[in-house]
Task: structure prediction
Amino acid sequence: MTDVARLSAIGMSELIRRRELSPTECTVAVLDRMAEWAPALNPFVDFDPEGALIQARAATDVMRHGAEIGPLHGVPVTVKSNQAVRGFSTRRGSRLTSTEPAPADAPLVSRLRRAGAIVVGTTTMTEQGWSATGDSPLTGATHNPWMFGRTAGGSSSGAAALAGAGCGPLHVGTDGAGSIRIPAHFCGAVGFKPTYGRVPYVPVPNNANLSHAGPITRSVRDAALMTAVMSGPHKRDSISLPGTMSPEVESGDLAGIRIAFSPDLGHARVDPEVARIVQRALSAFTHAGAVVEPVSPSWGPDGPAIIRDMWGLDVLGFLPGDTVRESLMDPGLVACIRDFEHFSAIEGINATGRRLAYAAAVNAWFPDDDWDVIVTPSASVTAFPVGRLQPEAWPQHPWDWISWADFSYPFNLSHGPAISVPCGLSAEGLPVGLQIAGPRLGDAIVLRVAAAFLEAQPFNEWPNPPGDDVRVGISVDETTEPTREAAA
Result:
């Protein structure tokens, strides 16, 4: 049954349709593996095995009566805790949020349920999604499945930890500056941030249109299917895109595809081992028939100043207002707020203008220079110890984690699709991710290139099970004072 828990969603669905496995058997297998791993990972805010089994038995009964079933019928899924799930609190990693259960599902959750998915729980995240590490004042540290004591990344911490450990095939994440792709990189998972608006995000965050919702999986084709199920316009998200995305990923070689490779976007510091692993992985693209050429895009060096200003604007909405509230918050988030609390309206307007010009430059660069996609490292480092915002050997700062994450946010700023796929393991046995990104609305080509990469260079490694002596536990504070919507 361990093998069942590690099946892809497509593989699980095919077995269910052929009646070789029931939804109940699949759900039990995933719940058993989650029970084995959860004490070490600390990935859940709410874990509801009893509710999941009720859903699974109902899905099994549907099969017995021969009713039409959806593409995810009987497939377990988790949801990041900034998306409302009926009956669970939407805590967003913060002790200042309400413990009241959500009265209704977020649109993407409703769509997953309509497709037949079994919701088993909500997953951990950093406070309001403000950072890309795995620590939260609400739930503590979420650990990396490949090495206890190392971060799972964030802000979609629990989702990536579960995906990397093989605890079910489908996990919802969100991404405001890398919060799907960075934890996927750290945990050996596939993390896809679709084009902005492809998946409706309700309520729409007040954060300069940075946040995207998307899947964390172990398969590119699973990511495409899950995105397709969640995609389409919604009346409560005025920026959601019309139409739905195809669940199919074009197969075959990459003949005629032009891939730009940038090891540093013209400015980023990268750990030498990460750089070597990503560089070696490029041969998979050429073996698949693509042309790969090194580039240093002109827009790259403009990104750091823009994202820091935009991030400062985003977090101002969480200004604590008094020392009691501040004492309940992540100190890094508070430090970031304090650095920007005197940011003027004119400075904010100018920052937004520079962001819009940057997005235009990124999206024009692909067709102007005749590139289909750009490949980079997913992040500059492998997973470092929990409790830190930066690796020990990197410049220290009270809040700036962006210094080691310069590859992801350009495609939040530009609203383009980007995916992280695992491309190897470090000498310590920690995963390294490779990012494939494209222009706005270029989801299909990004997924095609990513699928071809993993076909040419499969990542079939799994972390070892946790030892009996490794137990983190879950402790959720019951403070009920609500705050504002999440940043990422």
